[in-house]
Amino acid sequence: MEKTDYIEECSQCGYRKLRNKNGNCGRYLAHDGFPAKCTSFWAGIKRKAVDVYSGIFVGSMKAKWTLNYLDLYAGPGKYFDRSTGQLLDSSALIALKYDYNRIILNDLDNENYDALFFRTNDDKDRISIFNVDANKIESEIAKYMGTGTLSFCFLDPSNMNDLSFETVKAISKGRRVDFLINFAFGMDFRRFKHMSERKLSSYDGFFGTNRWRAIVQKFENGDIQSLGKAILDLYFDQLESIDYLRPNDSIMHLTSYRVHNSKKTLLYYLILASKHSRGNEFFAKIRPYVEQQQELFNRPN
Length: 301
Fold this sequence. Notes:
Layout: E1 2-4, H1 15-18, E2 28-30, E3 37-39, H2 41-61, E4 66-71, E5 78-81, E6 87-89, H3 91-94, E7 102-106, H4 110-119, E8 127-130, H5 138-141, E9 149-155, H6 165-172, E10 177-183, H7 197-207, H8 212-218, H9 224-240, H10 252-255, E11 256-260, E12 266-273, H11 277-298
Parallel strand pairs: 1-2, 3-5, 4-7, 4-9, 7-8, 9-10
Antiparallel strand pairs: 5-6, 10-12, 11-12
């Protein structure tokens, strides 16, 4: 496979056939000889959110706390942006710019784990890399999250039902953890009637309840935006049950951000969950940068 940091024909590649099962580009390796994820502009929105939030988080809290960054679905650390053909650092490597005391990265895929290990080799003293199911990692990382620590945890599963609410609960129990979560609201809910019981149960796991089923049935013939808001409200209810602040309607827009494709179809929400009002204040500060990233994609050529 060719090694490169730019793919001229990236946007015309027919990626659905050429992308590997783990989501990485099936035609090219990055210039360092390791794989890169095949994705599009929305990866830039997420990396921008992690970048700006880390700057505010570390800048404001470094003198008071031992700071951790956790990225539990980290991928290989780099990605090819199909909208530009560029090879870019993803969130896992973006975090290296900041003065976190401990950076915890994880990916279940062996290829991604090897890429992360190589790409973080110059900063090994403060990095721990795991190759496990993110839903089983809490016991592995507990030693880094004791008294006096404050953590920022990015959860970016490829499918929302790959993440269990019990994982969020376990990681945060008795700890100070801010979460940035890719609430990957997709079209699965439009196929609710055809879901297998196994898939239904996996979504029960994501929400920590089966109440989402009644919500999807209620909005089955409604617009996707209303359905998205309703199930997001349920998720915030669940977060509130484990001591996270539930934003009221007047500040909901400050703690969740809708990401759309160029056709204005809702792809996912980026949501912040914090036990302290400062977390909401920080997210409000990063929102303009995230919006700017979305606008760059939607700008006519």
